[in-house]
Amino acid sequence: MTVSFSAIQPTLKLADQVAQQLEAQIRARRLQPGEKLPTEAELVQQLEVSRTVVREAISRLRSLNLVESRQGSGVYVKEAGIEPLDLDSLHTSSKSAVIQITELRRALESEVAELAAQRRDEEDLRRIREAVDTLAEAVRQGRDGVKEDVAFHHTIAQAARNPFLIRTLDYLAQFLHDATRVTRANEARHTDFAQAVTEEHDRIVRAIEAGDPAAARQAAASHMHNAIARIQQADASFWDQDGERLARGIVNAP
Questions:
Q1: 3 state SS for 82-114
Q2: What is the pTM of this model?
Q3: Spatial distance between the Cα atoms of 27 and 35, rounded to a whole number of angstroms
Q4: Percent of the chain scored above 90 by pLDDT?
Q5: Residue 188 in contact with residue 246, Cβ under 8 Å?
Q6: pLDDT at residue 212 greater than cutoff 50
Q7: Longest distance between any two alpha carbons in the chain, whole Å
Q8: What is the pLDDT, as a whole number, of residue 56?
């Protein structure tokens, strides 16, 4: 099979651009497992970059376990595994980003709440109640409560006793934190919104305390669903004054 490449534009991180083109060809299986990559000289000519750039790009592919070097023969394509999650490459509008992250939270938090209702013990319940009180105190003192809100949900996750779920939430922590900053800033502008959040949290806690997995799942899902609805109801002035700035961490991932 003949594989062609586009000329690389003279910008920063040329090696990354070359690696991305090669990776795309491999993952689309236009370069098959076991197939030899074009020679270094051929890549230099087609991509219009230096040998150093090509070598750096190949090194990156090697680190992704997409290619292997064979002594005296060349570089060969390996079977591509699951593509790594790269949230840093996602770009969208601030409002859409917040909604999309909250949709992700709806799936995760629902499962977490259900498991927490099944597996929590008295110490878990004590920590969850303490997290609720800490959040309420932060609000009473006029703070935004973002850190306390995130901690409340993380405490429930710990009660679920699933290390894979906890690690997933930890991996997404910055995105979840930034999305929570936006949702809470919007909710703080409306007394009815803020009261609704408090009541939704209370329903989640009561379902977990009661050991009712179905009710806990429903309460958590409803909480995230309502959070999305509140963002959709936010007026333009909110985005002009606060929303865009607060969501910058989601839209422009570090």
A1: CCCCCHHHCCCCHHHHHHHHHHHHHHHHHHHHH
A2: 0.61
A3: 13
A4: 48
A5: no
A6: yes
A7: 71
A8: 92
pLDDT digits (tens, 9 = 90+) for 114-168: 999 999 999 999 999 999 999 999 989 988 888 999 999 999 999 999 999 998 8
Nearest by Cα to 59 from 94, 18, 90, 87: 18
Q: How far apart are CA 80 and CA 61, in angstroms?
A: 11
Token match 């690690």: residue?
167
Q: Pick the range with the lowest mean pLDDT from 87-96, 100-109, 197-206.
A: 87-96
Q: Whole-angstrom Cα distance, residue 18 to residue 119?
A: 48
Q: Which of 109, 106, 105, 115 is nearest to 212 (CA)?
A: 115
Cα torsion 220, 222, 225, 228: sign: negative
- Find out whether 129 and 208 touch, Cβ atoms under 8 Å: no
Neighbours of 89 (CB within 10 A): 8
3-class SS of residue 70: strand
Residue 63 and residue 85: Cα distance in Å, rounded? 15
- What values do phi and psi take at 38, rounded to 5? -55, 155
The 3-state DSSP class for residue 252 equals coil
